[in-house]
Amino acid sequence: MISLWEAIVFCVVVVGVIFLGIWKSRDEKDSENTEKGASDYFLAGRGLSWWLVGFSLIAANISTEQFVGMSGKAADWLGMAIASYEWLAAITLVVVAFFFLPKLLRGGVYTIPEFLEYRYNTGARAIMALATLVILVGVPTAGVIYSGAKVISVFFFGPDMGSFELGIAGIAFPWPILIGCIIIALCGTVYVFVGGLKACAWTDLIWGAGLIVGGGVVAYLAMQALGSADPAHLIHSASANSGATVDSLKDADAWSRLMQLNAGDVVDGVNSSGGKLHMARPENDPDIPWTALCIGLWIPNFFYWGLNQYIMQRTLASKSLAEGQLGIVFAAFLKLIIPFVVVIPGILAYNLYRDDLRAEAVVKNAVEMKKLEDSAKRDMTVIHVTDSYLMENSTDGCAFVKKNASLMKASPDVVKELDTAIAALQADVEDKSTTMAQRSQLIKPIIKINDEFVKKAKKDDASYAVTDKLVGFDYDASFPTLLKKLLPGTGWTWFVLAALFGAVVSSLASMLNSASTILTMDIYNKLRKDATPRSLVRFGKFGVLICALIAFMIAPFLGSPSFNGIFNYIQEFQGYLSPGALCVFLFGFFVPKCPRCFGWMGILINAVLYGSLALAYPDMAFLNRMAVCFGVIVVVGLIFTIVNAARGGEAIVLPAKNEVSLESSSKAKVFGVFVIICTLLLYWKFW
Asked: Can you give the pTM of this predicted structure?
């Protein structure tokens, strides 16, 4: 898959850039013994210029969790709709630059939780710090390690990989994933351990630029492959209502083929039911309904870009407010480009290599079926068949659903309805003139019935067990498959792999540095108020190792189909914190009479409410759950504020520490307006 000379160049480049970061992080004038030591290690001495801030933001954000997770969601039914995470982020970043960043820099804080003590009280800071630490280490950090390992396993091993079994509870996962996790975790830990944030920032400059170029190369090669692909193969990935035919594809160029294959109105259902070139999805879409574009999607966006420690740590390290604002707006502009090198290649991966994605799914399903064979409740286990599995494996899928009906003692009416639906599906399978996409509507009634069996079995978990989902495609393998199919022999393999590997290590290092900063400054420094700068840096390095170890232990298990893809896992679990934290900070920024007790109460109420909604309404899109939680916490905050004002509570005035210049940037304002206009035009084009 990679020639000897490319392997050598790859190693030289990766090692060289890491050593560059470590070298640039060293400052002979300021050792860890000085008062500036902690600021150097955790905030790069508050000396980052706008171009370092901008590229560092992009490199920290865009990594394999995007290239693996986001492109995977694009390959599935979401298509272009997943780009909302990127394009709405552009507007979000402009708002953060002019409304969030001035407040945070004025307080001279090291961490986001530190602001809550500055505005509310110690309890609010402690709860925010603990919640942020748990989610940061267990969700995005572990997710980056897994997604990087996924690229390694698919590119170098493919679907013919075995499984590594642990002797505890029969847990199993593909062994190349474990090897990949070890490689990624070690490399990311080494240079952040030595160089801190400054090392991350300098390497981010190179990886950020390389990642965009590398993604562009893959997108270009994928479009070339689409232009030369066999129309008879491509037609099976066409949207059911696209109107595409083999004849219409024959003489079409690559761009026309992309448009034809994925055209058509948006339709709820299995992949290929409807068009993929739309930003707005139906209101019952489980991931991004159009309602989420009104409120729900803005919540994780504002939390991530304005209050997420490992992202905002770069802007907190700006040498001035003006430099930070320019850097953020520059990053916002780059966000507009990302969907063209991440999302569209994901769509193309399904069009070009759906058979390879199906082969990768066989690995996941084999692990799950092995667990079923070894289960003590094998005869009382309901098999969780998904629509994509039934589409690609109709015979086995129908047999599993019939077994479930017998096991759950389905009523005669349900059995009759199921038999009718299965007969219709089997007749369509035998009709060779129909496409896979046109079969999607026949899948729905069978899956609807089986989902009821699954729900009943989960409620009666004392009597029954339920397997993880059996899937028809491994969509997380979309981008790695593109690399494997397109890069060898082009001379670009070393470059793209180096950019991806560097981005993984960069994101991981950034997250570990941020987790370590919170652990050190928000927890250790509060417990040991007499800690010296030297002891803070030493404990920070120890924290890097602990956080890396915990994330590494979680990462290999994130390939489970129950998580619905790595991108969903990262976004959904942050909902336990993001709506409540966003409300608390907004009130802290802009409502001086909001009482101090709201700081910790808003975060706790959100966590309880979000979890309760997940249990009570499991079919509700998690972005809609976020919107509900956000609305409730806003109401609670308003009530607290009104009561506090009625009791004569005084407005809280925050003192300014003025550690950096707080003069705003007029250039950033103009460029910010330009970015917002470009974003609106993109939505108009793809709505």
From this structure: 0.79
Strands 381-382, 465-466: pairing kind = parallel
DSSP 174: E
User: Tokens at residue 642, please?
Assistant: 């009104």
Instruction: Give CA–CA dist 458/410, Å, rounded.
Output: 16
Nearest to 400 by CA among 417, 413, 388, 383: 383
Q: Which of 648, 657, 603 is nearest to 630 (CA)?
A: 603
Q: Is the pLDDT of residue 111 over 90?
A: no
Look-up: residue for tokens 């599995």? 389
Residues 178, 153: Cα–Cα separation, whole Å: 9
Quick check: 209 and 495 in contact, CB under 8 A?
no
Task: Look at residue 173 and give its three-state secondary structure.
Answer: strand
Residue whose tokens read 């009482």: 595
Tens digits of residue pLDDT in 507-552: 777 788 778 888 887 888 878 877 777 787 788 788 888 888 888 8
Q: Provide the CB-side half-sphere exposure for 667 (13 A, CA).
A: 10
Please give the radius of gyration of the chain, using alpha carbons only, rounded to the nearest integer: 25
Which residues are CB-neighbours of 306 under 8 A, at least 6 positions away?
Answer: 92, 95, 96, 100, 312, 582, 585
Query: With contact defined as beta carbons under 8 Å apart, do 629 and 610 qualify?
Result: yes
* DSSP annotation string for 615-659: HH-TTS-HHHHHHHHHHHHHHHHHHHHHHHHHTTPPPPPPPP--S
pLDDT tens readout for residues 131-156? 888 888 888 888 888 877 777 776 66
| Confidence label for 603 from pLDDT (cuts 50, 70 and 90) | very high
382 burial (CB, 10 Å; 0-12 / 13-18 / 19+) is: buried
Amino acid making up residue 20? L
Structure tokens at 377: 């409740």
Q: Count Cα atoms within 13 angstroms, Cβ side, for 537.
A: 23
- Distance, in Å, from the CA atom of 369 to the CA atom of 383, rounded to the nearest integer, reads 9
